[in-house]
Amino acid sequence: MNRPGLRFVFLCMLIIGWLIVLKLYQFNGRGYAINKDLQSPNDAPHASAEEATKALMQETAKLSHASSVVHSKSPPQEEASVVPERPESQGDKPSQENPDLAHQELTVDDIAVIVRTGWQVRDRINGSLSTYLKDRSPNTLAIFADREFVVPGYTIHDALKPFFERLSQHFGQSTQKKLYDKIQELDDGVLKTVPGEHNDGWKLDILKQPMSADLGYHMLSQKRSFKWWVIIDDDTYLHFPSIIPALAELDPAAKHFFGMPTGFDKVTYAQGGSGILLSDGAMEQLFGDREFADAMHIKGLEAVYGDYNLAAHLYERSIFLDQSLAFMFHEHPLADIKWAIRDTCAPLFSVHHMQPSAMRSFSELIRFHDRPLLLWDLLNEIGITDLAYKTNHSYSLAETDLLPSALGKMSSKEMEQSKGNRVNVVIIDHRHHAEFQPKMCQRLCQSGQIKAQCAAWTFIPETRECHLSDEIILNVGQPRNDDSITGILISVVAEHHHRKCPDS
């Protein structure tokens, strides 16, 4: 065969060889088909590589799971499924120890309530029992005092007697035992309370708070199981629909400690009056060990506060206060709660220092709210028209605020800072007509020039003081006697509510 013929045959064989190689790549799934029409529409290029990657990830996950089982004794911070229970985690959103428990069904009866009252203030328990506690199942509620007595439908148990008798070697000769004996001798028909003073029962409260929680835990646990426990005062109002959605995402068997943070001796703990909320897992850690619990009660003889003593022993079990739900707990009555604009979407769970009449009024105000209670809900119930412009009232000053005036100053924008830097004080120029001075105060608030995010203003005619605040104080039932004129920037609150609280 001549040379051109050989070249032709060689070229044909080379082309056929390349076609065979490419075809093999196609069938092996490692290359594109030369003709896209030959490629199956359901087969993506490099399909086998993707499948191999998925298989590798699955195997890795299995190995990781097996490793976590083998090394189950590793430090908690190395386990992804364990919530870090360290002080530095405070303020974070509560984590889910077990994602399978997210959005578990949680009812109000899954939350046990332990209430603390006193013989000398025994009339106060009627406020709770006639409002938010009236429809509770009896086996979900325990009430304790420093002396046993009965109110219609309920026995109020003595929280101190069992411990004073069983641990008499520690309590028998104590000052607290002498106060307790004194209360047992009080006349049944007289309430020995003086407004503004601490009675003997209050002095026993340091012991009574942990002891009532201990007795309540064992008493109610015998009747049924609970997921959560709340320990409160007799003058604390609770709105359970506010807290249930948050708790439903958490594992009650884990160790959780919630409340409004306060501090003493460099320790942050939950303020007892606004409520202490513990998971069943945390309660078991506190009171499941009799020796440990008794040591806590004995330590109460020297403790400064009962809630501090409780928290100190929770800390010993590595259970630290989680502040992620702190905005739901309030140590003040409704009238004195300070609401910042950023709190518009914060559900209200607890309100402290509520007398029985105030509890009934509040209960009536929110009687139709079977969902989380927000600031906007309260403003709507009170009435928008009264909030925008009201006389002899203040929505920016607390009832006790008596700020010094600055008569004689001529500037319409001269500023003074009140205590806490919460309120900015501006003196309205006297040359402006008296009729327009309140409007000027309102416009200064609207402008935000003096107080950023101003939400409420108060004008006092006598001194021409314009008080601008980024916090709202409702002061319900607390009129002022200085002819003050006040208002809330409803449009600002409404805009923030609709923008930040879309699901409410």
TrEMBL record:
Its main location: membrane. Residues 66-102 are annotated as: Disordered. Keywords: Glycosyltransferase, Membrane, Nucleotide-binding, Signal-anchor, Transferase, Transmembrane, Transmembrane helix. The chain crosses the membrane at residues 6-25. It is found in: Membrane. InterPro entries: C1GALT1/C1GALT1_chp1, Fringe-like_glycosylTrfase. Residues 220-286 form the Fringe-like glycosyltransferase domain. Pathway: Protein modification; protein glycosylation. GO terms for cellular component: membrane. This is N-acetylgalactosaminide beta-1,3-galactosyltransferase. Residues 66-75 have a biased composition (Polar residues). Belongs to the glycosyltransferase 31 family. Beta3-Gal-T subfamily. It holds the Pfam family Fringe. GO terms for molecular function: glycoprotein-N-acetylgalactosamine 3-beta-galactosyltransferase activity; nucleotide binding. Its EC number is 2.4.1.122. It is a single-pass type II membrane protein. Residues 85-102 have a biased composition (Basic and acidic residues). It comes from Protomyces lactucae-debilis.
